[in-house]
Structures are given as structure tokens and as C-alpha cells.
Amino acid sequence: MAGSHPYFNLPDFTQPSPPSTSHNLPSNQRCRPSDATKGLLVALLGGGLPAGFVGPFSRMAYQASHLPSLELLICRCLFHLPIALLLKLRGDPLLGPPDVRGRACLHAVLNVLSIGCAYSAVQVVPAGNAATVRKGSSTVCSALLALCVESQGLSGYDWCGLLGSTLGLIIIVGPGLGTLQEGTTGLYTALGYVLAFLGGLALSLGLLVYRSLHFPSCLPTVAFLFGLVGLLGSVPGLFVLQTPVLPNDPLSWSCVGAVGLLALVSFVCVSYAVTKAHPALVCAVLHSEVVVALMLQYYVLYETVAPSDIMGAGVVLGSIAIITAQNLSCEKEEKKEEE
Predict the structure, then answer these.
(1) Domain annotation covers residue 81
(2) pTM value?
(3) Which residues form the EamA domain (predicted)?
(4) Residue 17 lies in a domain
(5) Quick one: which of 139, 96, 138, 47 has its CA closest to 229?
(6) 54-72 pLDDT tens trace
(7) Among residues 39, 204, 45, 56, which one has the least CA distance to residue 131?
(8) Considering its fold, how many domains does the chain have in total?
(9) Which DSSP string corresponds to 284-324?
(10) Cα 239–240–245 angle (5° rounding)?
(11) Residue 7 covered by a domain
(12) Residue 111 domain-assigned?
């Protein structure tokens, strides 16, 4: 009979069918989230929330001991180097397979440029505004690059959430851009926003390159390469472009350690998430970093948070909810169709 067919497992329509209940389905089919949902949750909890602390802590280290941005980048890269031990234990090449080594190094260079621009920006503009511009530019650029290069489109709800989050970022940073001071102060502020934008552009390019890498131990390899390339580029640049500073207070060392650890966690989670979900959606969910940075900016750094910042943060959170709910609802519809 059809109901006993070993390959198709078709129901036997000659017998009365039992009432359909959710208990007839295995638990792994009822509650199993999709890959996109996993990626977005990892990006939200492991990527955006820890990264929200990085900007304020970097600004605290600069205010306490005038720690240069390149020196902070060097300290962060040191946290990536122990990953070489994991690669050695697994018997994998430190620089990746020869056929993809160039792209892996390009990914590391783009990430180092992105982080360097971000650390430089938070020294001249508020941490929340710097994170806003960087995440906004990375989201828009990721959507355009994925659409043009990978021909990977988005659904209507995803576009709604993406545009909403971008609108929230514009609400946050728009009033500040309209009131730039004239003279040297205004020039440095404008330069900080430009660096934040370039950091977002480099981040979106890095995510696109990472999606093209497919080999075992890809994630630990690119994490190690980030630390290696960052050290090779930052150490000479620190002595040529900036003046090294040795912090002598516990606050600066605590901030440096927290930045290195949180940034490593965020790097790993974002790299994982972008292989599961659309890069533009991952960047949009990472806008939660802006909300965390604004909260720390107000409660820890005691810097002013305007009403437009609160309004924009609310729009960003609502857009993240739309994107997450859309992916969850799509998974439920797929389960219903399978039933």
C-alpha cells in the first residue's frame, strides 16, 4: 500500500486519517530554527551586544591615558594570536590553503582597516554616533554588494526592516551632522564621521570576501590572520604616525583587556552569522551595538544623549524585531507546508 512505501512514505487514503496534532511530529521538526534564525540570533547576542561595549571602552581608555588608536588595535590583535595553537593542534596551515590564501589575507586587511577607522573615529566623535555611521554604511553597502555581486535579493519584509534600521541611524546622527562647528574642531569631527563611514564600507567588503571562503577551519584561520595582519600593519604605523603610550592606571588596562576580549567574541560570532544569513540582515541586526553604545555613552561616559538618539534607537530596535520575526515566520510557514 501507499502508506507502507519505503521511499515516498505516502499516506494510505483508504484508512481514516488520525487528527493532526503537533504531538505527531518529532520535537526536532517542531522546534528546530532555520539557519537564518540561528545566524541572526548569534549576530544579535554574540556580535552586536558585546560590540556595543567596545566603542565606549575605547573612548574611556583614550580619555584616561590618551591611548592611541593603533596601540589599541595592537592590543586587540594580540588576543587573536593564541588561535594559532588551535590550528596547530588540528594540523591545519596557519595561513589557510594555498588556493584561498590571497582572499583570506584580503579579508584580514579589510577588517583591520575597518577596526582602525572605527577606533580613530571614536576618539573625535561620540562613541554612539561613530558606531551609528559605521553600522549604517556597512548595512547599505552589504545590501548593494550582495545584490550586485551575488545576485542575492531580499524579501519585502527584510527590505522594510533594513530601511527602517537605516532610517533610525539617520535620525540618530542627522542632527549632529547639521550642527558641525566651524574651524579645526568641526574639521576633526567631520573627519571622524568619514572614518566611521569608511570603516563600515571596509566591513561590508570583508563580509563579502568571507562568504566566498569555503575550507575546513575557515573561521579560526581568518581570526588568526586578522591578528597577524593587524600587528604587521599597526606596529610600524604606531611609531611613524602616532606616539606610543604606556598606560599606568588600572582603568586603562581594564578597558584594553575588555576591548580585546569582547571584540574577539564579536568577530567570531559575526563571521559565523554571515555564513547563515544575508550579510545585510546580519549588519542590520548588529545595529543593536548602537543602542548599547548610546546607553553606555549616557550612563557611563556621562555624555549627552539627545531625544533624537532615543527616537532613532527605538526605530532601530523595531526594525530588528521586524527582521527577526520575518525570518521566524518564514520558518513556521515552511513547517506548515511540510506538514
Answers:
(1) yes
(2) 0.76
(3) 40-173, 191-324
(4) no
(5) 96
(6) 888 988 888 888 888 888 8
(7) 56
(8) 1
(9) HHTTHHHHHHHHHHHHTS-----HHHHHHHHHHHHHHHHHH
(10) 35
(11) no
(12) yes
